[in-house]
Every structure is written in C-alpha cells, then in structure tokens.
Amino acid sequence: MIERSRRFYLSLLRAFSVLALCSVSSITANTNSTKTTETPNGNALKSFSCEWKDLEFPITYGPGIAASLCVLIGGFHLIFGFKKQRATLFLTGFSSAAFLTYMICLIRSSLHIQYILLITAAVGIFGGILCTTVIFCGLFTSGIVAGFSLSMVFLFGLASLYQYTTLSIPIGVLVSVSVLLAGASVWWKRVLLIISSSIYGGVLIMGGIDYFIEDLRLVHHAWDKVFIKQDTGKPCFFSWIILGVWPLMVLVGLLVQFLKTGKKPPKPAKGENHRRNHSSQNDQSFQLV
C-alpha cells in the first residue's frame, strides 16, 4: 500500500513538472509576442483609470456565469471546507479543471461560447469526480491550487517592490510552493485542508468580485506584473480594495472552520463508551421484552 502511494505521488509530480515546463514555454512565447491583452468580454485592456465611467462594461453570460460560480464555490470553501470534505474536493477539482479548460478554449479555440461552456462543464465534472473518488488526488489538487494562489499573491507584492528580470524566479516560486503545500496536504489532512480551502476560497471570491466591478483588471495587472509582461499602468484605489478582500476572506474562513465547522469532536471520557454500549444493550433487551 505504501509503495503504491509512493508511485502515485511520483506520477503526480512528473505530470506537474511537465505542465510547469509547458506553462514556461507558453509564457515565454506570450511575452515575446506583441498582441494586446484582452478582457474576458473581448475588449482591449486599457490603462488603469480612477474614473468610474471607465468601469462601465457589458457583462456577458459566459464570464458572468463563471464569476458567479467562483463567488458561490469560494463561499462554500470558506464555511464548509473541512466539514464537507467530499463536496470540497469535488468543487476544487471542478473549478480548477473548468478554469484551465475555459482559458485554453478562449485563447486557442474559435468555437462559439456555448460550445466552450459545454466543454468546460464536461471537463470540470470529470475533474471533480476524479478528485472525489481518489482522495489523494483531491488533497494534492487542493494543495496545488492553494499554493499557486498564495504564490501569485506573494509574487505580486514582490514584483511591486522589486522588478525582477527573469522568469525563473516566478516559475521557481510557483512550482516549489505548490508542490510543497500539495505534499503537506496529503500528510496533514485536517489542518492543511482548512488552510488550503480558506486560501482558495478567498481567491475565488476576489476574482468574482474583480470581474463584476472592473472586468478582471486587477487579475490582468497582477498576471502581467508577475510574468514580466507589458505593464498596463498602476491600479486605482478600488483595485486595492478588491485585493484586500482576499486576506479578509482567508481570515474569516480560518476562524469559522477552526472554531466551528472544522472543529474536532471531543473525545469521550474514559469508560463512557462502555456505559453507552451497556445502556444501548439494556434498551434493546427492554424492546425485545
């Protein structure tokens, strides 16, 4: 059993390393290209402006549905992350697989939005079922997404203070933190599942709010800043308010789960189990009589 689990972890690490190498090549190709960044609605991303009139944009049903699901799934992670473990692992696999599929289809495919949503839903359901049936895969995935989210926030703060010039720094931080947190999530299930669900839930809520308020301008700015792309300007005060939602939601999730929903049940006192079994046997004998 131990040898089988070791082989399973090694296969997951190899798959993650391959995905990391593919992401490095795609990021490098996108950095060298001269295409303009577009929002989920297909509009060219302009420089940040602090005027409210620049925030008026049409909310389409494709990204709108995705942002609404992000807020709902993030709220579920914050409150019932550990208490409803199966549902949490399903939603983690569903949201991560659906997000990756949706972004790949938007960038590489020319299909209609309805077909993209169908493909995204199918892949997301498959990822959710996989993470639910294979518990180690679900815990590993929850650690990966939490480590990726935590690394992105750290790198965004680092890039705002110190502008590095090589992609090896963000890639190394993303891969190392994600793999370490994923491995720790497999061994320390309760504590790390509460922490990872709070981190991931806060990021999902922040991303959904960012779409409805400013069409993911903060997300685009953070992505360009971390991966040394063309800078689109400095974010305004409402962008920093949206960013402040993430640590607030993480704190709320940790407090709610550690103090209420994810609290360990009290251990029975010595001899209490014997008394319970004796009383249940008496009840059964009384019912039989």
Q: How would you explain this protein's 3D organization?
A:
With 289 residues, the chain is mainly alpha-helical. It contains 10 helices and no strands. The chain has helices at residues 2-32, 61-80, 85-108, 113-133, 135-161, 168-187, 189-214, 217-226, 237-261, 272-288. Helix 5 (135-161) crosses helix 8. It is globular and about 60 Å long. Residues 1-29 form the signal peptide. InterPro entries: TM7S3/TM198-like_dom (IPR025256), TMEM198 (IPR040236). Residues 279-289 have a biased composition (Polar residues). Residues 68-258 form the TM7S3/TM198-like domain. Belongs to the TMEM198 family.
Largest sheet properties: none
Oligomer: single chain
Decide which structural class fits the backbone: mainly alpha
Beta content comes to under 5%
| Residue windows where pLDDT falls under 50 for at least 5 positions | 8-37, 281-289
SSE pattern: HHHHHHHHHH
What is the CA-atom radius of gyration, in angstroms?
22 Å
Average pLDDT number: 76
Cα distance spanning the termini: 48 Å
Helix fraction bin: over 70%
Question: What's the helix and strand layout?
Answer:
Blueprint: H1 2-32, H2 61-80, H3 85-108, H4 113-133, H5 135-161, H6 168-187, H7 189-214, H8 217-226, H9 237-261, H10 272-288
Quick rundown:
The protein is mostly helical.
From the structure above, extract its key features.
mainly alpha; disordered C terminus
